[in-house]
Amino acid sequence: MKDKRRPIKLTPDWITGFIEGEDSFFVTHRSDGTTRRVYPQFRFCLTQSDRESHERIRNYFGFGVIYGQTTSAFALEVRSQSDIQKLIRFLDGRIRCGHVREKFDRWK
Q1: Residues 69-94: pLDDT tens digits?
Q2: 0.90 exceeded by pTM
Q3: Among candidates 43, 23, 22, 17, which has minimal Cα distance to 95?
């Protein structure tokens, strides 16, 4: 049976709301044995049936990697620091949800 849902129009506000709802900001700590570095990382996970949303957001930005996190979920992840900076410029000033905005401000 075909899915009869109408495709969602991808707008900056829709993408921002989607990201706000997923609370997607993380910090990764990496060490090369002598130096420990901290890197911002962006990731969100949804059920397998929502992989299309991941793909559309990745295509909108032109970066990110989608991978199966479990048998029932996918994740879209951005680790490249230059892509993180593009994402920061996109989201800066757009996030309205108070606790997500605070987390974003600490993360960036």
Answers
A1: 666 778 888 888 898 899 899 999 99
A2: no
A3: 17
